[in-house]
Structure formats: C-alpha cells, structure tokens
Amino acid sequence: MTPLLNIRNLHVKIREGAASVPILRGVSLSLAPGEVLGLVGESSAGKTMIGKATLGILPPQAVITDGEIFFDGENITHISVKARRRLLGTDIAMIPQDPMTSLNPVFRIGPQIADVLRLHLGFRAKEANQRVLELLDDVHINQPERVVKLYPHELSGGMRQRVLIAIAFACRPRLIIADEPTTALDVTVQRQVLRLIKELQSALGTAILFVTHDLGVVAKICNRVGVIHAGRILELSSAQNLFKAPAHPYTQALMAATPRYDRPNNALHPVPEALVKHLWDDVRRYDRGDFAKDKSHA
Amino acid sequence: MLGLGVFLLMALTAMTGSWLAPHDPLEQDLLNSFLPPFWVAGADPAFLLGTDNLGRDVLSRLIYGTRVALMVAVIAATLTGMLGTTVGLLAGFFGGWVDTLVSRMVDIWMAFPAVLLSIVLVAVIGAGLHAVIIAIIVIDWTRFCRVVRAETMVQCQQDYVASAVTIGLSRRRRLFVEILPNILPLLISLLTLEMGIAVVVEAILSYVGLSVASDAATWGGLIQEGRLYVNQAPWLMVFPIACIIVAVLGFNALGDGLRSAFDPVLRR
Fold it and tell me: Residue B158, CB half-sphere, CA atoms under 13 Å: how many?
C-alpha cells in the first residue's frame, strides 16, 4: 500500500540575513492511511516545522533546501498556491496548538464552521447550518443550537478546541496535522480532548501526524512514534516497542525524565549532560559534512 | 455620548437648514449692517447673532456653512478612509515590494507640507467643493494607510489567520473577510478623527478663498470676511471659530465614544 504521507530527507533552514540555521536535518518518515504517528521531542527540536512544511505554511524566513514531501503519491513540496488550497481543508487539515487565538474573534462559531463546508463541499447555507449542528454534536458539545450563536471569547478553552477539531474533521480529511493540540489545555480537559480525537480518528479512519512533547499523550493515542532531536529523527518505532524497549539513549533519558505516579519518591532525572553534549557534537559533525558538501558543489 | 449629540445636531442643522435659517444667507440689508448679537445693547431680535458688514444674518450664514462643513467631513473622510484602508491592507498583507512601494510613497507624502499641497492641488483642479474633497483625499490617505498597514501586519501574525490558511481560504477572503472586520474598531476612530481634520482643512481652504464660490457661506469664509472688521464686530469671527471648535471636538468625542462602545476590552 502506498503511504499517505511520505517525507524524504527533508531539510529546512531558517535564513537570518546572510547566515542560515538548519532546523530540519534530513527528516524521513511515512504515514499509512489511518495511522497515528506521534512526533516527540523537546522545544525547538523541529517537530512543529515538520507539520508546517507538510501544510506549506512555513514562516517566510524558513526554506526547504532539500528533500521531498509526497501526499498520496503526489509531490507537494513546491506545488502552486492554488493546488495547495484545494488540498488544505479537504484532504489535509490542522488542529492548532492554541485554541484561544485560532478562531476569528469577530465572528460567531456557527458561520466559522459553516464556511469550511460551503467552501469545500459546496453546501448551501441551510444545509451547512444543519451539518454544523451535527458536527458540534460529534465533538460532544452540549446544546449546539446555543453554541453556534456564541462568539469565541464566550467559550472555554476546551470548548474552543472542540470547535477547532470539528472544523478540522468537517470535510473528512485523510490527514490531520495536530500541533500540540492539548498543550494549552489543563490536564482533565486534555484527557477528554485526546479521547475525542482518538474517537473521531478511529470512526473516520483519518491519519494523524501528532506533534507533542508529552510522552503520556503519545502512549494514549499513537501507533508509531518518532523521537526528534535537533531536527533529526533519532528513533522511529511502534509505540509499544518504544515504551517497552527504548533503543536510543536519548529516548531512554526522556522516559526517565518523565515524572510518574508509580515512582513518586524519585527525584526528577534531567537528560544527562554528557548525552546532550554527545548529541550536539553529532549534530555539528553533520552540519560540517553538509557544509563541505555544499562547498564541493559550488 | 456628547460626540453623538454634536454630530446629530450638525446633521439636523445641515438637513433642515433652509427653513431653520431665519433669513436668506445672501440677503443684504445695508441699513442693518454690523448689528451685534442678541445679548448686547442695540441688537435686533430678528438677527439673533447679529449681522455682518453687508447686513447679512450671521446665524443663517453659519447654518448654511454647517451644510458645507458636514458634507466635506462625511464625504471626504469616507473616501479618504476607503483609499487609505485599501492601500494599507494590501501593503500590510502582501509585504515585500508592495509594502516597500507603499511605505516609500507615504514617506514622500509626509515630507510634503499638507496645506501647501492642498492649495496647489485646488489651484490646479479649480476651486469648488469637489476640489476640496479631492485635495483632502489625496493628502490624507496616508493617515489611514500607515495605521491600517501596521494593524494588518499584527493581525496577520494571529493564529486565526494561520488557521484560515489551513482550511484553504483564498488570499482575498482572508484579507477582506477575516482580517478587515478585526480592524474595524480602529477604522471607526480614524474615520471620525479624519472628519474633524476635514472640517479644518475645508475652513483653511475657504479662508484663502479656494473652496466653494465666494458668495456661498462657509465657516472659513466667514472668518476671512470677519477678519477685516475684527475691531468693530468681533462676533463675526468668534462665531464661526466656535463652530469649528465644537465640530472638531464633537467628532473626536464621537470617535472615542464609538470605540469604547464597540471595543470589548474597554467596555468591561
């Protein structure tokens, strides 16, 4: 079976004046239809950038310098704005990190969801409104008739994230990029939202690229997990394997660093300094190699 | 809502001016020239605010002047706002060379003395109400442009705009349907501010005789005529000046009032 999403040797750099800083150093991964792939890593590891590159919404300073992204066999690394618009919202959707700011503050909830339906599925106003109620019901929002008339600031964070999930799933996309969808929520709401995403995912067979820094979240929802550090995937294996037998020392260190209730008396274990240094030495060696290669081309 | 009161008063005066005014603003009565306003001894109650050197009724002339002032304020400010906002939105949204081009144009505009530019413009186009309005638009679009450009840039950084991209909305839709409504409160305050400025510009241009035909009554024209007789009949200047001050303050208060009425943060 062809993978739904296939990223090959992706390099992204951020330009700062004349200099450029690599943020993705040859990322390769593939995602089968209906699969949930987790990407974990510390802040600035580049996990969000993978999602943004796939969606084609990299910040203007960031450029893809090498590698390809295939969606359903089609190379979408550098497709036109028009072609990308056909893809986004219909085949690929996104659940954003911050539900507080991701809805337009001046419009009511109903029209914001209906917009997607009318734009991509050609719904008429009336059908769209009907469908919006169903969608809100699907994400377990009580009294959808009341909620569609509210403005975003009148909803709680969890409710807003549910609305955004409803928007993401509205056109039954085949791939959803979830960029830390639970980070901005408190722990009890996190659980509900995770369960909701999992429920919709298995009902509709959507593939999800799940970006997070929370190993607990990964354990609950993902089939496979990639561990990222400094723009490289260090380890990519099934979720079971990863938790049972983490192969890479960095993965082991991350597991050890996670506080758990079943070992409450242990002090927190930060990732050992020697390991961090070793990893970065590796990265620097990689960058130098990269640099030398560029030189020889020139 | 003091501002709204002033605005409504002006609008009402302008609309009902022809029967509200006790006299024809052009009717001369040389026997009754330089009559003082009603509270001074020797006033004629038929001429509440006195008469000018040709015996024309000051109150009636002020009322007819209101019509010109309000017309210029509303039309010029709206058109200026439309031009400046469009250009500012495009510059802020697209950035790059569009932004550079617009910003440099704004810089050049701001380096040019506004009053001088307006007088030159009116001289080229030819005096008249339309010339005044065109002059205001050409000069003042930068005021909207600068503010709208900056605010558009801020809005573009917001997550809801990124979300709009990920659901596949077109650029035109993002700009006019998503971003524009979010800068509307700002536009309202700018618009009322611009109305005040338009009143002043119109007064300046009619003071130098470049506005509507010189026999028509305008506030600026009244000041200019009164200036000659300021020692004999100071009220000829005082009343139109007072009108301009009240109008400009009223517009500014209207802007503040509307902003606090619409802005959810200030309302709380």
Answer: 22
| Mean per-residue pLDDT, B201-216 | 80
Distance of CA A12 to the CA centre of its chain: 17
Which residue from A minimizes the CA distance to B263? A106
Residues forming a β-bridge with A130: none
- The ipTM assigned to this model is 0.70
What distance in Å separates the CA atoms of residue A220 and residue A195, rounded to the nearest whole number?
Answer: 9
* B182, A106 contact by CB (below 8 A): yes
In CATH terms, A5-106+151-297 corresponds, of 3.40.50.300, 3.40.50.720, 1.10.10.10, 1.25.40.620, to 3.40.50.300
> For chain B, which residues make up each domain, given as ranges?
2-25+34-267
Sign of CA dihedral B91, B179, B71, B203: negative
Do residues B213 and B25 touch, judged by C-beta distance below 8 A?
Answer: no
**Paired strand residues for B92:** none
Residue of chain B nearest A102, judged by CA positions: B160
Q: For chain A, which residues make up each domain, given as ranges?
A: 5-106+151-297
Residues 6+ apart with CB under 8 A from B242: none
Distance in angstroms (rounded) separating the CA atoms of residues B9 and B3: 10
**Interface contact A86-B168, CB threshold 8 A:** yes
What residues contact A53, with CB distance under 8 A and at least 6 apart? A7, A10, A12, A24, A64, A69
pTM, to two decimals = 0.77
Q: Which residues contact A66 (CB under 8 A, 6 or more apart)?
A: A9, A10, A11, A26
Long-range residue pairs from A23-28, CB within 8 A, at least 24 positions apart, any chain = A23/A49, A23/A62, A23/A231, A24/A49, A24/A50, A24/A53, A24/A231, A25/A230, A25/A231, A25/A232, A25/A283, A25/A286, A25/A287, A25/A290, A26/A66, A26/A67, A26/A232, A27/A67, A27/A228, A27/A231, A27/A232, A27/A233, A28/A67, A28/A233
Instruction: Give the A-side interface with B, CB within 8 Å.
Output: 55, 57, 60, 81, 85-90, 93-94, 96-98, 101-107, 115-116, 119-120, 153, 164, 167
Name the strands in the sheet holding A5-16, side by side, starting at the edge strand that comes first in the sequence: A19-31, A5-16, A62-71, A74-75
The answer to whether the CB of B58 falls within 8 A of the CB of B236 is yes
Helix, strand, coil percentages (3-state) for chain A, rounded to 5, are 45, 25, 35
Q: Are strands A207-212 and A74-75 parallel, antiparallel or unpaired?
A: unpaired
Tell me the per-residue pLDDT of A139-153, one tens digit each, with 9 for 90 and over.
999 999 999 999 998
Rounded Cα distance between B210 and B63, Å, is 20
CA–CA gap between residue A229 and residue A45 (Å, rounded): 5
Q: Which of A89, A104, A105 sits opposite B168 (nearest CB)?
A: A89
Q: Which two tokens stand for residue B161?
A: 């705009």
Which class is B2-25+34-267 in CATH?
A: mainly alpha
Q: With contact defined as beta carbons under 8 Å apart, do B40 and B101 qualify?
A: no
Considering CB atoms only, which of A102, A104, A120 is closest to B168? Answer: A120
Q: For B2-28, what is each residue's pLDDT tens digit?
A: 778 888 888 888 888 777 778 788 778
